[in-house]
Amino acid sequence: MTEIPTSELTGTYTIDPAHTEIGFVARHAMVTKVRGAFKEFEGTAYLDGEDPARSTATVTIKTASIDTRNEQRDGHLRTNDFLDAPTFPEITFVSTRVETLDATHFRLAGDLTIKETTRAIGIEFAYQGAARDPYGNLRVGFEGSVPISRKDYGVNWNAALEGGGVLVGDKVLLEFEISAIKQA
After folding, report:
1. Contact yes or no for 108/146 (Cβ under 8 A)
2. Where's the Lipid/polyisoprenoid-binding YceI-like domain (predicted)?
């Protein structure tokens, strides 16, 4: 594989939804994890290959597109108990700062908004590389994750378990596997 020069990375990118996953992991019944993803989202980024601190990113996720491979659970997650998709159809992230941790790791700070509540978060990303696809598009890849408290965003529903504990854990791990295409 030919190394893509850093200078060629600078530009505006669009997230490729066919090769990107925005997912989450939450504790269920205190004993296992439930994984899910959002099927509909869009995002753009400006990458500065010479000065990553000048890079920016925005992502918009359609809350109704939540998918945990269980339609009954997905339906519940779309209600006011959780995401209230009819009232709050989108989750947004807008970057405010990029911090270089080392040659391939970055912290993308920004504002995450869920149910009209905005909180500052920092997502650590690993740069997976860049390549030209068979169509001549320059693609970049990033993987990252960040734990959040769902209660920080007004997602408070729960049920007590008979033996103690609760049905749904407070901590949710957001996971990102991003493939983005440089725009002409």
Report:
1. no
2. 12-181
Task: Take residue 76 and report the two structure tokens written for it.
Answer: 């519940």
The string of pLDDT tens digits covering residues 16-43 is 999 999 999 998 877 789 999 999 999 9
pTM for this prediction:
0.93
- Provide the 10 A C-beta neighbour count for residue 141: 18
Q: How many whole angstroms separate alpha carbon 117 and alpha carbon 107?
A: 22
Considering only the C-alpha atoms of the chain, give the largest distance between any 2 of them, rounded to a whole number of Å.
Answer: 59
Q: Where are the domains of the chain?
A: 6-182
Q: Are residues 92 and 61 in contact, defined by beta-carbon separation less than 8 angstroms? A: yes
Phi-psi region of 8 (alpha: psi -120 to 50; beta: other; left: phi over 0): alpha
Distance CA 17, CA 20 (A): 5
Q: What is the pLDDT of residues 76-110, one digit of tens each?
A: 999 999 999 999 999 999 999 999 999 899 999 99
Measured distance CA(83)–CA(107) in Å, rounded: 26
